[in-house]
Amino acid sequence: MSNIPLTRGFIYLIMGILFTYLAILSVDTTVWTLPTILFALVAAFDFRLAIRTFSLHRKIKKLQEQYKKSNSNDSQK
After folding, report:
1. This model's pTM is above 0.70
2. Is 9 exposed, middle or buried (0-12, 13-18, 19+ CB in 10 A)?
3. Alpha-carbon Rg for the chain in angstroms
4. Which UniProt keywords apply (predicted)?
5. Which residues of 46-76 are buried (b: 16+ CB within 10 A; e: fewer)?
6. Interval 12-30: pLDDT, tens
7. Distance of CA 3 to CAs 10, 46, 48, 54, Å?
């Protein structure tokens, strides 16, 4: 259960790569078509969510380590 942010981060990263690939495939003569722009926007949103989720996972790990250290110090006293 503690790896949920990490798993979600990888899912968002894979979705971002997929939508980037779809945006590249949807380019016909110009980049400025509606499907291409929509795919690129969704990909950017997914990449942003992936980065935020990875940073959340890192913060949770850091807090868990601090909690373990404080509990081990309290039990030694």
Report:
1. yes
2. buried
3. 19
4. Membrane, Transmembrane, Transmembrane helix
5. bbebbeebbeebeeeeeeeeeeeeeeeeeee
6. 999 999 999 999 999 988 8
7. 11, 19, 19, 11
